[in-house]
TrEMBL record:
GO MF annotation: an example: metal ion binding
Chief site of localization: cytoplasm
This protein's name: Haloacid dehalogenase-like hydrolase domain-containing protein 2
Domain of life: Eukaryota
EC number from the UniProt entry: 3.6.1.1
Organism (species): Drosophila persimilis (Fruit fly)
Its biological purpose: Phosphatase that hydrolyzes imidodiphosphate, 3-phosphohistidine and 6-phospholysine. Has broad substrate specificity and can also hydrolyze inorganic diphosphate, but with lower efficiency.
Coiled-coil intervals, chain numbering: none
Record gene name: Dper\GL25939
Homology family: Belongs to the HAD-like hydrolase superfamily.
Protein's cellular compartments: Cytoplasm; Nucleus
Cofactor (UniProt): Mg(2+)
UniProt keywords, alphabetically: Cytoplasm, Hydrolase, Magnesium, Metal-binding, Nucleus
Reaction(s) this enzyme catalyzes, per UniProt: diphosphate + H2O = 2 phosphate + H(+)
Length: 255
């Protein structure tokens, strides 16, 4: 079956901070020209959708803001559907995507994303107490990545802070982002998984999560790729970078 749609990870796959990965801008154009639908899917929780769109356009990519589906997007829907009034451990930019706090209601949950400035004792302790004061202990982890790629190397992700709150409050977080099926169902938005492929640098969150949903998975050796992370079943393809992943898709569709 030919590939009709590609879900493309952002940080570490399409770009690293403000630098596209090798030949990624041109490769994305080739993928579009071949008639493959693209959607950009990311666990990035530090930047709002507007900031992500502005950055990608600034470094050379052509895309519409509506083509971005982030774990923030999924979390906003989760908060809205659950009528929650959370305490947020988020960056100021990411917080813009969420509804305003209702001062007439008690905070009934905690939402955690990548927020380096918020991971201090005072704010973590506040989150801990919000969880203790609510019987449901609703802890929402936009994602719980162990680490992510920056220009100066790997950096600590929000996962350890989520796990700390789980341990202290005696609760289990509701995971929203990759590799959760909730995320991939939202990203697919009705597309047939068997005709879709996920391109990413994270063996577990990108590739393992997508393949469990019936997509094919192309793992790239950029970003936070680590050769000693073994995935079972293995990725559909292992390639050097995003441009090579596009070559793989186009070759498969021509077969």
């Amino acid at each position: 079956m030919s590939i009709k749609a590609a879900l493309i990870d952002l940080s570490g796959t399409l770009h690293v901070e403000d630098e596209p990965t090798p030949n990624a801008v041109e490769a994305l154009a080739r993928l579009r020209d071949a008639g493959v639908t693209v959607k950009f899917v990311t666990n990035t929780t530090k930047d709002s959708k507007g900031t992500l769109h502005e950055r990608l356009c600034r470094i050379g990519f052509e895309l519409d803001r509506s083509e971005i589906y982030s774990s923030l997007s999924a979390a906003v829907a989760f908060v809205h559907n659950g009528k929650l009034n959370p305490y947020y451990l988020l960056s100021e930019d990411a917080r813009q995507d969420f509804p305003p706090e209702d001062p007439n209601r008690c905070q009934d949950s905690v939402v955690v994303g990548l927020a380096p400035k918020a991971f201090n004792y005072e704010q973590m302790n506040k989150a801990f107490n919000v969880l203790l004061q609510n019987k449901e202990h609703k802890l929402v982890a936009i994602h719980q990545g162990k680490y992510y790629k920056r220009s100066d190397g790997l950096a600590l992700g929000p996962g350890c802070f989520v796990k700390g709150l789980e341990y202290a409050a005696g609760c289990t977080a509701e995971l929203i982002g990759k590799p959760n099926p909730y995320f991939f169902k939202g990203a697919l938005d009705g597309l047939d998984p068997s005709s879709c492929v996920m391109i990413g640098d994270d063996a577990n969150d990108d590739i393992g999560g997508a393949m469990a949903m019936g997509l094919q998975g192309i793992l790239v050796k950029t970003g936070k790729y680590l050769p000693d992370v073994v995935l079972s079943p293995p990725p559909t393809a292992l390639v050097e970078n995003f441009a090579d992943a596009v070559d793989w898709i186009l070759k498969k569709n021509q077969a």
